[in-house]
């Protein structure tokens, strides 16, 4: 059965992104610190259709498994605006639903990525994404505020956290404002790695 998931890297002090985010400074300039584990993996570059990566170990296996289970994405307008100017064509290889108040026609890319712009909230975006996913999982891509909305609405089934061994000191925290009484959390898997620690959680609604 299709699940709602998210998959996010954070710093050891809980920050998902840095300060001063903009299309010219995506994620506040901290992507390299949080995602270095991913950039080392051949699986990541294979997904982009590019040469790159020196490793193909358990981290790469994790990347491939997550890609394989994802059938559609949901993201917030801010994340979309940061990425629109720099993402390669057909990055997501699936339908992407962007939460926004902006009225805009779908952006159909070459390949299999189409961005749809949803103006009537997270429930509507999720309904549309489930149809697109065709039995695969719906991934809440970000940013932090969008993930928080889905968590607080009780809509998330599993999530994956990659804790980078860095302190950012400031920025945007992933779990600010979370309703602590919404779920029981169960640790499903812990995968240690040189550049991050992968944690998989199952969420059981109370």
Automatic annotation (TrEMBL):
A GO molecular-function descriptor:
5-amino-6-(5-phosphoribosylamino)uracil reductase activity
Ranges for the Bacterial bifunctional deaminase-reductase C-terminal domain?
3-190
The record, for Pfam families, names: RibD_C (PF01872)
Q: Name one GO biological process term.
A: riboflavin biosynthetic process
Gene3D superfamilies registered for this protein in UniProt: Dihydrofolate Reductase, subunit A
The name this protein goes by in its record: RibD C-terminal domain-containing protein
Q: Which organism does this record belong to?
A: Sinomicrobium oceani
